[in-house]
Design a protein that fits this description.
Elements lengths: L6 H21 L1 E4 L4 E4 L1 H12 L1 H19 L5 H20 L9 H25 L4 E7 L2 E7 L3 H21 L2 H28 L10 H25 L9
Antiparallel strand pairs: 1-2, 1-3, 3-4
Helix pairs in contact: 1-2, 1-3, 2-3, 2-4, 2-8, 3-4, 4-7, 5-6, 6-7, 7-8
């Protein structure tokens, strides 16, 4: 159900969550020189905002908070793309997790759907890893925008293992947890896919990176996966401990 709050409380929540998304995005990054983008943990805050407060606050805090982080870190060229992409991510996660009807039980169709989704994510990670990351490449690890660059030479088996782990994690969580939790997994997979696809299209066509745009796909899938792992338990815990989150519903 969509949450409904007094205007003053909605404004305060929106400001706090926007700042939280920005701060968490700033705290830790992995730079990707091929696309001039970066991996970060901000998606976890986007998901928490969307799950707790719905699609409107999720969209605003996700889009504006992430775009502000881009500007602060010197990635201004990405700010408009981030505003739209992360805004759509927050909106979709908030809409599905709060508005649509979750399954009442984990039935066979749901198990098949989640299993296929997990397999697709795993295959994408393996294929892109093998195609674009099996030769030496450079990344930069940084805190608050200060990077230290170094070269990695991952062996092909690493991507097979990562793909299998990602697929197994999605499948196990999706079919072995309570229906409401598996529904959150589904909402994050759909919303996160909007983020992954949005950045890929923008980098491939608008920014002219061409095939280099594929390089960022595994990182963005990683952001989605890690963000979900953080956001689901945190949001569930906050719902149980912060009574004002349940002020009213409509």
């Amino acid at each position: 159900m969509l949450q409904s709050y007094p205007p003053s409380l909605s404004l305060a929540i929106t400001a706090i969550m926007t700042a939280l998304v920005c701060i968490i995005t700033l705290v830790f990054q992995i730079s990707i020189p091929q696309t001039q983008g970066f991996f970060n943990l901000g998606d976890s805050a986007v998901y928490i905002s969307a799950i707790l407060f719905g699609p409107i606050i999720g969209a605003f805090s996700g889009g504006v908070g992430s775009a502000l982080a881009d500007l602060i870190l010197g990635y201004g060229v990405f700010a408009p793309i981030t505003l739209v992409t992360k805004g759509a991510e927050g909106f979709v996660v908030g809409l599905i997790s709060n508005s649509l009807i979750p399954p009442k039980k984990i039935n066979t169709r749901w198990k098949v759907f989640i299993s296929l989704t997990g397999l697709i994510v795993g295959i994408i990670i393996i294929l892109i890893g093998l195609l674009f990351y099996s030769t030496p490449w450079q990344i930069g690890v940084g805190i608050l925008g200060s990077y230290q660059f170094f070269e990695l030479s991952p062996i092909p088996i690493v991507w097979v293992v990562l793909g299998c782990i990602s697929a197994a994690l999605i499948i196990v969580v999706g079919i072995r947890t309570r229906p409401e939790v598996s529904w959150l997994v589904f909402s994050i997979l759909i919303g996160g896919s909007c983020m992954v696809l949005g950045y890929f299209v923008a980098e491939y066509w608008l920014l002219g990176f061409g095939p280099a745009a594929f390089v960022e796909v595994p990182f963005n899938i990683g952001q989605m996966t890690i963000g979900g792992i953080i956001a689901i338990p945190v949001s569930q815990s906050l719902k149980n401990t912060l009574p004002f989150l349940m002020v009213s519903q409509e």
